[in-house]
Amino acid sequence: MRFIKVLFTAVFLVLPLPSQGADTYEGVEYISGKDRFEKKIKGILHIDVEEIRFTDKKGRPIFTIPHSILTEVSASSEKEEGSFGRKMALGIFASKNQDYLYINTETTDTAEGLVFKCKKNTSQGMAAELHFYMKRASAANTQQTAEGTQVGKPSIPTDERAATASVPAGALPPAQQEAIPAGPLPPAPLTTPTIDSKRVGWTTRENGRVAYEWQAVLGNRNSKPVQLLIVLRLHSAAGNVIYDTEERVSYVEPDARTEITGTGAVQEVVALQADHWTLDISRVQVAGPR
Question: What is the DSSP string of 81-144?
Fold first, then answer.
């Protein structure tokens, strides 16, 4: 019996549930998406059972997000080119992977898409924890709605004489059907913007690197502004990908065509193997206000 008790204890240790207290994530930087917060802010993200709290490094509150208004949470680890000095010092090792956390919210008045930069290898865990609380908040709202709309079951007389004496046959009024409003439709899902035209070309060649410039015209047919990722890939004549990068586009106007441009550079040895470029869209979500 002792062996069985020890085994059960080990299972509970391996499979923990999210903490009931607040989990604190330091080294987080707010990037964009929150109304009235235009500038980047470095601080601490606190996740507890009711809400997300973003504070400065001294714990002073900046803004909060209730779990009940979360609609989507995701995380990514993206390769970023280093600064000019870092490139000069480290060359091909200048780029690094950076974690990002994306939080979408909706209320009756507005929709927002927040972006946070996080410490390495933390964004996936934060997203998983928020998914747990988001589902729990959604289930609680559904249960409250169901309890608020329950109608008591009418009692039926069990005594036949009492029933016939109080309500003669045929005296009941006809049942009336109460109209239930259909309510507004849920928002239409986002569609991926089209790439109406695109171009990539070499510009300069020096210090063992070859610079390039790309341009694309995006057609956003959504009624809301969106943010997205452009995936740029360089292929060899055999079709192999020899270089790839992701470019974030933080705001594309709704129901409009928008021209975007970007630049980058590859090692000369890579450029000599190049045959053609491809340019695609990998992720689309609602953009916050500018």
Answer: PPPHHHHHHHGGG--EEEEEEEEEEE-SS-EEEEEEEE-TTTHHHHHHHHHHHHHHHHHHHHHH
User: What's the CATH code of the domain at 242?
Assistant: 2.60.40.10
274-286 and 51-55 strand pairing: unpaired
Return the ∠ at Cα 246 (arms to 215 and 211), rounded to 5°: 55
Q: What is the DSSP letter of 172?
A: S
Q: Which tokens belong to 267?
A: 């090692």
What pairs with residue 197 in β-bridges? 217
Which of 124, 140, 156 represents a domain boundary (last residue)? Answer: 140
Residue 104 lies in a domain: yes
Q: Does 135 share its domain with 206?
A: no
Angle 73-79-81 (CA atoms, 0-180°, nearest 5)? 135
Per-residue pLDDT of the chain (290 residues; tens, 9 = 90+): 444 333 333 333 333 445 556 899 999 999 999 999 999 999 999 999 999 999 999 999 999 999 999 999 999 988 776 665 665 555 555 578 899 999 999 999 999 999 999 999 999 999 999 999 999 988 887 777 666 555 455 555 555 554 455 556 666 777 777 888 988 888 778 889 999 999 999 999 999 999 999 999 999 989 889 898 999 999 999 999 999 999 989 889 989 899 999 999 999 989 999 999 999 998 888 888 77
pTM beyond 0.85: the answer is no
In a domain, 2, yes or no: no
Q: How far apart are CA 242 and CA 4, in angstroms?
A: 54
Q: In what order do the strands lie in the sheet with 96-106?
A: 61-66, 51-55, 41-47, 23-32, 111-118, 96-106, 70-80
Q: What is the DSSP letter of 69?
A: G
Q: For residues 35 and 108, is the Cβ–Cβ distance under 8 A? A: no
